[in-house]
Amino acid sequence: MFHGIATLMGRSLRLDARQLQTHLFRLAFIVIIYMMMMIAQVQAMMYGAPGLQFFMNMIFLNVSFIAFGGISFFSSAITEEKEEDTIGLLMMAGINPLGILLGKSTARMFQALLLLTVQFPFTLLAITLGGVTLHQVVAAYVALLAFTVLMSNVGLLCSVISRRSGTAAGLTTLWLIVHSIMPHLLQAPKAVLLASAWGSSSIFGKWLNSAMDVVIQSDVILRLYAILQTGFDEAIITTQVITNLGGGLAFFLLSWALFYRFALTADVQGISRGMLSQTTRRATWAGSGRAWGNALVWKEYNFLTGGNVFLVIKLVGFLALYFLMYPILAGVRIIAGDPQPWDVDQEVVPAHFAIVIAVLVIELSIYASRLFHDEIRLQTLSSLLMLPRSIAYVAYSKLAGMLLGALPTLLFVIADSVLVAPNADEWFKVAGHPGFWFPIVMFSVFLHLVVLLSLFVKWGALPLAFFVMLITMYCCPIFMILIMISSEGGAAAHLIVLGIAWTLFIVATFVFQMMIHARLYELGAK
User: What DSSP character marks residue 277?
Assistant: First the structure.
């Protein structure tokens, strides 16, 4: 029995051990560590305790890797089999649902855990650089391992209940956002509960307060910030580790229980539309309707981004977020001991602005990784390129549909930027500074890289592009050098730096688009 359950998992691990790209990816991760260590050595000449800075960079690099891995790597474990319609074949081969889950998801979790394990001896170098103790290093990596278990099984559950990888990635992203902001949302009601007589004396009030404490302490970011404090001497196994491991086990068992209900459901309509609603008489706005003049734009807007349904959801969600920011920021002030915790009117818009920008980055990154996914998976790219349209027309039409789906987020970014800087002179002053354009330029290059890598790898284009960009920035920190030059000069220096940055951007995007064009032509010719 156990041999049959572990068959697919053992095969996945053996296949992973024999693939060259897997070891190259782990080697690249070690190269990043050495790059960070070199930077720490340079910082040692100017600042004290460079080991702490090096260790901090490594820890939050791992958090980003796990988050992006959960969105793109873990969440596609079962949906890729659904999209290939091979779940039934695996069941006919004698592999039961538990074996499928272990082979498709748990094997991926072990790959991520091995990536964390292989870097642990190198991270111990932070101790020799000063500012970090062995206890902090061990506590941080135990917290990261627990968070990896939780994130992988959350992605597994989303993959089981979703029909498409895009839907699973979206649900995983939504869970990650809620999981990240929930500890901050609970700070204010927890403080009010403690201040009331009912909350401090009644049994239910004490139980509710304990439950809030568990949710707050389960956040890995808050745990890592506590570990990185000087003089840290807390226990290694804490509430965050226990709840993350327990949550991972609960999500895995729930995925197993729901496997027959969702994973084996036949799709009689053929290719799923994901989260796109069907047109009904009561809600005609929620359907896709008839195709537009440019059918490619219509297809990407409705099938990739969710169409009108997700458009309305994002608009309502961003508006509701304004009202949620008050208790979040008030809770932060209560923790800091501010005598006027609810006086946060001036902080709501900047905080909302930062969240909307983060959502836009995640949204466009996911869309870029999925831009040509369906055509490659369904092997329809050759038929698409047989249309009397150029490859550039096809690609830019799909891009336009993607941007149309991201329009609500873009509108709120513009609106928040106007509210943050209501003075027109101040707004144009910020818009003309190189520091404003550098992140936009780098993110645009990053999106091009995601699209290019998605044409070569079946999954993981998003985290792979993230690490490629990180290595490039460490090996060739041209933008950092330009920022330093612009910060010490006047208007003339700003114009020169902007000219250099935009020249590099145009050259980089031209090269990437030519490579994407060549790869699409190669895939379409097969």
Answer: P
- Secondary-structure percent of the chain, ordered helix, strand, coil, rounded to 5: 80, 0, 20
The label of the residue with tokens 């999925």 reads: 370
Q: Does position 53 have pLDDT exceeding 80, yes or no?
A: no
- CA angle 369–374–377, rounded 5-degree value: 105
Q: For the range 241-247, what are the long-range contacts, defined as Cβ-Cβ under 8 Å and sequence gap of 24 or more?
A: 241/142, 241/143, 241/146, 243/214, 243/217, 243/218, 244/143, 244/146, 244/147, 244/149, 244/150, 244/218, 244/220, 245/146, 245/149, 245/150, 247/150, 247/153, 247/154, 247/218
Cβ–Cβ < 8 Å for 501, 435: no
DSSP 3-63: HHHHHHHHHHHHHHHH-HHHHHHHHHHHHHHHHHHHHHHHHTTTSS-HHHHHHHHHHHHHH
Domain boundary assignment for the chain: 1-266, 288-420, 423-526
The tokens for 433 are 């500074």
- What letter does residue 261 receive in the DSSP assignment? I
Weakest-pLDDT range from 217-221, 416-420, 449-453: 416-420
* Two structure tokens written together for 473: 């920035």
Cα–Cα distance, 358 to 57 (Å, whole number): 19
Q: Tell me the C-alpha distance between 480 and 197, whole Å.
A: 54
Whether this prediction's pTM lies above 0.90 is answered by no
**Best CA proximity match to 413, nearest among 403, 401, 402, 398:** 403
The single residue listed with the structure tokens 């960009």 is: 469
Question: Do the Cβ atoms of 168 and 80 come closer than 8 Å?
Answer: no
Q: How far apart are CA 265 and CA 161, in angstroms?
A: 10
Tokens of 172: 């995983």
pLDDT in tens, 439-453: 888 889 899 999 998
pLDDT (0 to 100) of residue 516: 92
Q: What is the DSSP letter of 286?
A: G
pLDDT attached to residue 243? 92
Tell me the two tokens of residue 116.
């964390």
